[in-house]
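Checklist before submission:
- one chain only
- standard amino acids only
- sequence pasted in full

Submission:
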Amino acid sequence: MATMERKSLNNPEEMNRPEKLTMEAVTVRGFTVRRITAEPGWQWSKHLKPLQKTQSCQKDHLLCIISGQLRVRMDNGNEEEYGPGDVGSIPPGHDGWTVGDKPVVWLELPH
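Returned file contents:
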């Protein structure tokens, strides 16, 4: 019989803090859910590109924006802005950044 599981992102099992970014994660039933907080001024190409050593972000994201604004530009030039309540799919090959003077917070969903 399956049992219920409860974990909190307020007490993460994993935490990573590269410059201007906080990544917190919990795993439930084998699925990892992450809460990402990107501070004003954060941009993937400025802050994570040197760590990832790729021209653009190569992760495939499924996300839900909790607060703030996130702008994403695909390698082909297409752009989209995500705000609170938006759910998005962002394929590999993009740059992203915080818009405005407030942090953007999103949940990274397993897929």
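Reviewer check: The two ends are 24 Å apart (CA to CA).
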